Amino acid sequence: MGHVDHGKTSLLDAIRNTRVTAGEAGGITQHIATYQVEHDGSQITFIDTPGHAAFTDMRERGANTADMIILVVAADDSVKQQTADSIACARQAGVPLLVAVNKIDLPTADVNRVLADLAGYEVLTEDLGGEVLCSQISAKEGTNLDDLLSKVMLQAEILDLKANPDRDAQGVVIEARVEKGLGTVATTLIQKGTIKVGDSFVAGEASGKVRALIGYDGKTRYKEAGPSTPINIVGFTGVPAAGDILVVAEDEQTARELAAARSR
Predict the structure, then answer these.
(1) What is the C-alpha radius of gyration for the chain, rounded to an integer number of angstroms?
(2) Residue 97 exposure: Cα atoms within 13 Å on the Cβ side
(3) 3-state DSSP call for residue 64?
(4) Which of 66, 146, 169, 236 has the lowest CB atom count within 10 Å?
(5) What does each of the 264 residues of the chain score in pLDDT, given as a tens digit?
(6) pTM of the entire predicted model
């Protein structure tokens, strides 16, 4: 999360080695997308949240689905309104922050100013004797990205993040849309358990049975998806809202009854 133009999507691009920003309206992220990357044998799932003020509610949703938030601050621009909003958003959701000071390759970069400004918002990084992990990076040059990912893994260890894959799945709908030939497709982040093709489920006022599980690349099909996996679920009746909790039900009838009860 962070201010517009501070390099959030460029950072994700650099981590994924693909190009997104240029294709979006004026290079600004319009929707929340999820990706998974591998680092030292572990998978890290990223949710890219929009930076514009108009998207505050979406951004809050992004914060409420995450285990931690990477606050991206440009070294040449320091703390801006949306940086402050993101800090407030993380506090409200009770989600810990990691700081990524981006654009350190620019001649006008002033990392010390950024850290001092953040301290003004009670975000104290390690360099200043605080507990917030911080990486100084350049998304454009690909500098220190490994350091950032290692700190994400370290934070996960500190937080002791664990999930049980051997139970009925529960997840959160990131976004839902209707696609030609597939019907309603919901990008869902599985948080507990494992979802399988054929499972009946309910999400908000929508229900259904999993017809297909498609990877975030839009092509790969899976038989099942476990915790922290972003997956596109096909098989809804109705369209769930972003932020709805998806829960696997005993059978289709139970799922339908639960959805109907919620829509009353």
Answers:
(1) 19
(2) 31
(3) coil
(4) 146
(5) 888 888 888 898 888 775 444 555 555 544 557 778 888 888 888 887 655 454 566 566 665 678 899 999 999 999 999 899 889 888 888 889 999 999 999 999 999 999 999 999 999 999 899 999 999 999 999 899 999 999 999 999 999 988 899 999 999 888 889 999 999 999 999 999 999 999 999 998 999 999 999 988 788 899 999 999 889 999 999 999 888 889 999 999 999 999 999 877
(6) 0.83
DSSP result, 196-245: ETT-EEEETTEEEEEEEEE-TTSS-EESEE-TT-EEEEEEEES-PPTTPE
Which residues does residue 46 pair with via DSSP β-bridges, in sequence order?
A: 35
Which helix H or strand E contains 181, and what residues bound it? none
- Report which of 79, 67, 62 is spatially closest to residue 6, judged by C-alpha positions: 79
Helix (H, G, I), strand (E, B) or coil at 182: coil
Triad 218, 222, 225: Cα angle to 5°: 105
**Residue 95: both structure tokens together:** 């989600």
The interaxial angle of helices 81-93 and 56-63, nearest 10 deg, is 40
| Token duo for residue 96 | 């810990």
